[in-house]
Amino acid sequence: MPNRTATAHIGVTFWIPLIWIAFVVVSATTAGMWAIPESDRMNWENLSAKPGTKSDDAVLQHTGEMEKTDYTYWLGTDTMGRDIISRLVYGARISLSVGLLSPLIGFFIGGLLGCLAGYYRGRLESTIVAVMDIILAFPGLVFLLAVTFYLGPNLENLIIALGFLTIPAFSRVARAKTLALNNQEFVQAARLTGAGDISILVREIIPNVLIPMAVYGLLVVAFMIMAEGALSFLGLGVPAPIPSWGGMIAEGREVLDDTPHVSMIPAFVMFLTVISFNLMGDSLRSLLERRKSQL
Question: What is the pLDDT of residues 82-108, one digit of tens each?
């Protein structure tokens, strides 16, 4: 009975956030099929229109310039008359790309370095730990400013720069887990059978490190989405007119008193997405801890 209760509790805090994330992902991938205006289509007759505003001169995507039609701005428009729904679904592509791809860089590079440091120890461990500490000590915002200045503000550079900053965190998780696994019986048994270091790492260590790192990665995904939003708010994200959630929040800050929905709606969508990834990560971590305690 306790196990069933624990599973049910984890199911509630995992599946509901998963449904929201799936909805965001599907919306982003199918945005081109929606009967909505293009994300940069301006309607000068409906600037900062409130949610539910109806228009008879909207131009939907994949239609001609003169093919105006009736359309309801269910979530309103921004300060330049652009449909908020359209910018949300297209902006989701940017936020999800940064949130999911940036941690992959840290996951693979940091995970590999952490496993090597935790397994071989000695001088290699000291060198890797020192390099990770240097990266952590260097101001991340200064690094991002330098990347933007020298390489230009685009999505690829943003993903690489943020991914580089996640390497130390993943390296620490992988190293800590590898240190805990080094003295486990199945690793010692592999050594006694004459297995080499590479074989032990590939067959015994890395498979057992991947799951904790993947769980931690969900938390990093949430942080990366917030980081992208903050950078776009500061003007360090993808350049206009490409929509992003952070950019949408920034564009509406000057009209918060009159039309708060311009900033609040994308902020709320970002909040739901971030908390969904956090809840999923916490649920999986609790599940792993309970299974470990039952062994």
Answer: 999 999 999 999 999 999 999 999 999
Q: What angle do CA 132, 137, 142 make, to 5 degrees?
A: 115
Tokens of residue 268, six digits: 């709320």
| Residues paired with residue 83 on neighbouring β-strands, in sequence order | 77
**Which residues are bridge partners to 58 per DSSP?**
69
The sign one gets for the Cα dihedral 188, 189, 191, 196 is negative
Phi, psi angles (nearest 5°) of residue 102: -60, -50
DSSP symbol at 235: T
- Note the pLDDT tens digit of each residue in 254-290: 888 889 999 999 999 999 999 999 999 888 888 877 7
pTM attached to this predicted model: 0.88
Q: Facing residues of 77 across strands?
A: 83
Distance CA 46, CA 264 (A): 18
Question: Residue 61: is it exposed, middle or buried by C-beta count within 10 angstroms (0-12/13-18/19+)?
Answer: middle
Backbone angles phi, psi at 69, to 5 degrees: -145, 170
Contact (CB, 8 A) for 250 and 240: no
141: CB partners within 8 A, 6+ apart: none
